[in-house]
Design a protein that fits this description.
Length: 317
């Protein structure tokens, strides 16, 4: 009963926030026509040509601002994310933010948004656990156990999905790193600087590693030192191979050695590491295929081989 009450209260709160955002946008609107009147009143202090260009840009922005998503849904989701961000414990905020960064979701999902998803998973898991317990008329102790199991499953599932996304992204980075190093080596040997080679690769290829290199280039264009930008990229990815590459580039920059030779050595090293990882996966294949053999193939073989023998023995006796 308490869980049903909490679920009803959460639904009522969501409906209230939707109505509140709708009223805020329609009852107390910020008129776009008033903005145009104010810009006309300031005509004597602003250059007319620049004003006309700004008005053309503002018309395009106003078309986007007039959409239902920008007027109602986006402010509501932003407010919910801020509220859930404030409710999230401080000890978990940094951990969740770091995991979102490593997963490549920093620009798509905030800590508050992830907290909303986590809360929804927990609520739905508790609701289904309660419905199952009430449908089967379980005792109080078993109902409490089912609710605890639902809470654990609902709370663990978003983290498991996030960790899975991190693992897949790191695997893509490791797979793409040797190719990117070969392109860097060829570009630097052709006469380009390291930054120009990275910029050329970023313009012509795509992938998670390219996205990180693009962000590192943006940091360097804003005045961040190269070694700091590369170290930040390494910390965002948490890939040992990438950390080794960044350390070699930083060391070559400090010692003044040739970047071309360093890239050549690192490219050979990464190809060898990739070759060793593929051999390792190939050696694991017989062990991994053992369980499907035992579960699916051997029982069918036993049926095909032993059933006729058993039937013949039954007929003889």
């Amino acid at each position: 009963m308490l869980l049903a009450l909490l679920f009803s209260m959460s639904v009522a709160l969501l409906i209230f926030l939707l109505c509140f955002g709708f009223i805020q946008k329609y009852v107390v609107p910020q008129s776009t026509y008033q903005k145009r009147l104010n810009s006309i009143n300031e005509l004597n202090t602003v250059d007319a040509t620049r004003l006309m260009n700004n008005m053309a840009i503002n018309r395009e922005q106003e078309k986007e601002d007039l959409s239902f998503y920008n007027r109602v849904i986006k402010p509501l989701t932003d407010k919910l994310e801020n509220n859930f961000f404030e409710l999230t414990p401080a000890s978990l905020t940094d951990t969740i933010q770091h995991k979102l960064t490593v997963a490549g979701l920093k620009q798509k999902l905030s800590v508050g948004g992830f907290s909303i998803i986590w809360a929804l998973f927990v609520c739905f898991a508790l609701y289904f656990a309660y419905r199952y317990a009430s449908y089967h008329s379980l005792p109080l102790m078993q109902t409490a156990l089912w609710l605890g199991l639902g809470f654990i499953v609902g709370g663990s599932l978003p983290l498991m999905i996030l960790n899975s996304l991190i693992t897949k992204r790191q695997a893509k980075i490791v797979k793409q790193l040797p190719e990117v190093l070969d392109l860097m080596c060829v570009s630097v040997q052709a006469g380009l600087t390291f930054d120009a080679a990275v910029k050329k690769i970023v313009q012509r290829t795509h992938g998670p590693l390219i996205d990180e290199l693009r962000e590192a280039l943006d940091d360097m264009s804003m005045g961040v030192a190269r070694r700091m930008a590369l170290k930040s990229m390494s910390n965002r990815c948490e890939v040992p191979e990438l950390s080794l590459f960044v350390s070699s580039i930083v060391q070559a920059e400090r010692l003044g050695t040739s970047i071309s030779n360093t890239l050549t050595i690192q490219a050979d090293n990464m190809r060898e590491r990739r070759r060793q990882s593929i051999k390792e996966e190939a050696l694991k294949a017989p062990i991994k295929i053992l369980f499907p053999l035992l579960l699916f193939i051997f029982p069918a073989l036993f049926v095909v081989v032993l059933v006729p023998v058993i039937l013949n023995l039954i007929k003889q006796f």
